[in-house]
Amino acid sequence: MAEPTIQSIRKITTENPYRVCFVCLGNICRSPTAEGVMQHEVLQQSLGSYFEIDSAGTAAYHVGEPANSKSRKVAEEYGVKLLSTARKFEASDLDYYDLVLAMDRQNYHNIKHLAGGEHHHEKIYMLRDFDPQPDDDEVPDPYYGGINGFYHVFDVVQRSCRNLLDQLKQHVEK
Ligand code: 4NP
């Protein structure tokens, strides 16, 4: 099972919540799904005040838009609401967030390019580093395909986020 260790996870408290940002290309399909799923998992486990969850895109094409209608439909079937408004990932996000999770290799390299030093680099991972069933290392882009691709994205994102949260919550101090 994929069990990468995040470099020195700090103590997570309500005073200093752990900040996670999911990043894809357009911030309308994959990363809003990951944001919604992770927020849902955190709330289900009564950990809402210990985590701050966000998403962004490396491209600005869709800035200001809600999540894609197919992404929202699939998520709602699983009881997950996608509430994000698309925004572009900025270099300053690497200061603010504790963990930045790229959906594919292109996103990963674009984020790495913005990193200003080791303290930034060590925050950046691929979401599928945390997939317990890693048959691929990327969350595939569903944008130009049919609804099945959106179901696949949801499945991959859900099991990866659950595994990630299992690791993070061991550092919560109540
Ligand atoms: P996302 O999907 O990166 O998962 O939000 C895409 C959304 C839009 C485009 C590509 C991928 N686009 O080319 O406009």
What's the structural blueprint in terms of helices and strands?
Elements: E1 18-24, H1 30-44, E2 51-57, H2 69-77, H3 93-96, E3 99-102, H4 105-114, H5 118-121, E4 124-126, H6 147-168
Parallel strand pairs: 1-2, 1-3, 3-4
Helix pairs in contact: 1-6, 2-6
This protein binds 4-nitrophenyl phosphate.
> How many separate domains make up the residues?
1
Mean pLDDT across all residues, rounded? Answer: 96
Under CATH, the homologous superfamily reads: Response regulator
Number of helices: 6
Low-confidence stretches: none
Order of helices and strands: EHEHHEHHEH
Model description:
This protein has about 170 residues and is α/β, with parallel strands linked by helices. The protein has a single domain, classed as Rossmann fold, CATH 3.40.50. It is about 35% helix and about 10% strand. The protein contains 6 helices and 4 strands; from the N terminus they run βαβααβααβα. It has helices at about 30-45, 70-75, 95, 105-115, 120, 145-170, and strands at about 20-25, 50-55, 100, 125. A 4-stranded parallel beta sheet has the order 2-1-3-4. β1, α1 and β2 form a beta-alpha-beta unit. α1 packs across α6 (about 145-170) and α2 (about 70-75) crosses α6 (about 145-170). The structure holds 4-nitrophenyl phosphate. 4-nitrophenyl phosphate binds near residues 26, 27, 61 and 143.
